[in-house]
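Lab notebook: predicted structure, single chain.

Context: the supervisor wants predicted structures on file for every construct in the current expression panel, including those that have not yet been purified. This is the next one on the list. No modifications to the sequence; it matches the entry in the shared construct table.
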Amino acid sequence: MKQNIIHISLTVAALTATMAMCASTAGSTAPNNTTEFSTVVSPPVPKTLKFAGENFSFDRTDMYERLDRELSQLAYTHSSTMLMLKRANRLFPVMAPILKQNGVPEDMVYLACIESTLNQRAYSPAKAAGIWQFIPSTAKQYGLEVNDYVDERYNIEKATAAAARYLRSAYRKYGNWESAMASYNGGQGRISTELEAQLADSAFDLYLVEETTRYVYRIFAAKILMENPAKYGFKIKPDQFYTPLAYTTETVTSTIDNLPQWAKEHGTDYAMLREFNPWIRAKSLPVAAGKSYQIKIPKKQWMSKSSQKLTKHQLYNPDWSI
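Prediction complete. Output recorded below exactly as produced.
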């Protein structure tokens, strides 16, 4: 037994010495034992920005620093920002005209970017849903249907029109877009109360909770980066952007008891039906008398990525691509 213990001790000692020698040898291959880091560049902050037809200056120190923070975060949140850019090519052509038709600047598409990174399935712990992140009560207030079968917060066209109605109403109330946008995050009650209590006319001059303070600058940062992604390190080829949906539309005026079967009869499947119509929330669709729904049915050619070769000039914004 004693001999075995001595043998084990000698073996352990030998292994320890060998490991120490290897570590010493490995360390000697790196000159001066230095560590290399990847280069981190501070994103450029513009002096001014034209947004919603107005020129905003960031010469004021606090405004500069707030925009710098949001640009830095957006530029280095690589996967989320890159996906947002790719989705924008599909969604901006739908959203921008609806905003314009409703009397709201097209730049408000960037508010949706901050709300959801343009993820159509976005759902928050506060039960806000869809690209525009409406909570159920506000959605219903602005004309959207929300129930177990239909949730129009996920209907890109109807939700965008509802968001436009909200923003137009807020702009009329406050007289400037920064306060209207801040109210989208903090609520009109809170913004109105604080403007009065703090003797201010603009959300830029309010002391608010951090999330609402940051909100408008995050929207500005989205526009700045997304108008020139390569400047901020995002190099995406034209064909890597997502193509607009291609579909036919079926008007439904009576109840569909079995949507998977209905989808098959219309040349698609239930999974793709839900992808193109995320407002559908169940496997059946009750339709009340006098009501109708527009269901998008994907075209077969859209299902083939290889048949949809995008070029730079086919993008919503050609400057997005390298």
